C-alpha cells in the first residue's frame, strides 16, 4: 500500500518492488532495484526517508524517525527481517541483522555488519567495516574481505528479487495436496561458514 501524507507522495523507481502487504507513507524516495517485503512499514510522515539503489527492507521491518529528521539507507544496505531503523543512517553495503533495533541519530558506516538482535543506542557512530553485536551494541572486530564478499552476494539475491516478483509473484488459491511433479528448489546461497568452506 502506498499512501500520500500531507501532500507528500512516495517516489518509487519502476524497477523496485514493494509488496502489496507493505506500507510506504509520505516523504519516501526509493531508488532502483529495491525490495520491500510484506509487513514492512516505511513511514515518511514526519520526515524524509531515502532508500538508495539496491536497498532491501525485509519482512516486518519498520523505518521511521522523530519529526523533522531526514535519513538515508545508502546503496545496497540490507535490512534483515523484523529490524527497526528509527532515525538512523545506514552506510553503503551494510548488513543489519534480523530483529536489530537502531536508534535515532546513529550512524552505521559503509560495509558494517550488525549482528541479529543487536541494540544500537541513539547517537552511536560506527566506522566502516565494523562488526557490531550486542545490547548495547559494540564493535567486536573488523569485517573481513571474505565476510563482505558473502554479504554482497546475499544482497545481490535481493536486488534480483524485484524482477522475479514482477515476473512470477501472483495471488492464487492454495493447492489441497502436494503434486507429484512439484520441483525441488535449488540451493544457491550458503551460510557464512559454508561460504568459507567452499573457498
From TrEMBL:
Which Pfam families does its entry note?
A: Hexapep
Q: Name one GO molecular function term.
A: transferase activity
The answer on whether this UniProt entry bears the keyword Transferase reads yes
Domain of life (superkingdom): Bacteria
Instruction: Look up the coiled coil feature and give its residue ranges.
Output: none
Q: What is the protein name given in its UniProt record? A: Transferase hexapeptide repeat family protein
Q: Does tRNA-binding count among this protein's keywords? A: no
What keywords does the record list, in alphabetical order? Transferase
Q: Which organism is it from?
A: Aquimarina hainanensis
Amino acid at each position: 500500500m502506498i499512501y500520500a501524507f500531507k501532500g507528500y507522495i512516495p517516489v518509487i523507481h519502476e524497477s523496485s518492488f514493494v509488496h502489496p502487504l507493505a506500507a510506504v507513507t509520505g516523504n519516501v524516495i526509493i531508488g532502483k532495484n529495491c525490495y520491500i517485503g510484506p509487513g514492512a512499514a516505511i513511514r515518511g510522515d514526519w520526515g524524509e526517508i531515502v532508500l538508495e539503489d539496491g536497498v532491501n527492507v525485509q519482512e516486518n521491518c519498520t523505518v521511521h524517525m522523530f519529526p523533522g529528521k531526514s535519513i538515508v539507507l545508502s546503496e545496497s544496505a540490507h535490512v534483515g527481517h523484523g529490524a527497526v531503523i528509527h532515525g538512523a543512517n545506514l552506510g553503503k553495503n551494510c548488513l543489519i541483522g534480523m530483529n536489530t533495533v537502531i536508534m535515532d541519530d546513529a550512524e552505521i558506516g559503509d560495509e558494517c555488519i550488525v549482528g541479529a538482535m543487536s541494540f544500537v543506542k541513539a547517537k552511536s557512530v560506527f566506522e566502516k567495516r565494523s562488526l557490531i553485536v550486542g545490547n548495547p551494541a559494540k564493535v567486536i572486530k573488523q569485517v573481513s574481505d571474505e565476510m563482505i564478499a558473502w554479504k554482497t552476494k546475499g544482497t545481490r539475491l535481493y536486488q534480483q528479487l524485484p524482477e522475479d516478483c514482477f515476473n512470477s509473484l501472483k495471488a492464487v488459491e492454495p493447492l489441497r495436496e502436494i503434486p507429484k511433479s512439484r520441483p525441488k528448489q535449488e540451493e544457491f546461497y550458503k551460510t557464512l561458514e559454508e561460504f568459507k568452506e567452499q573457498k
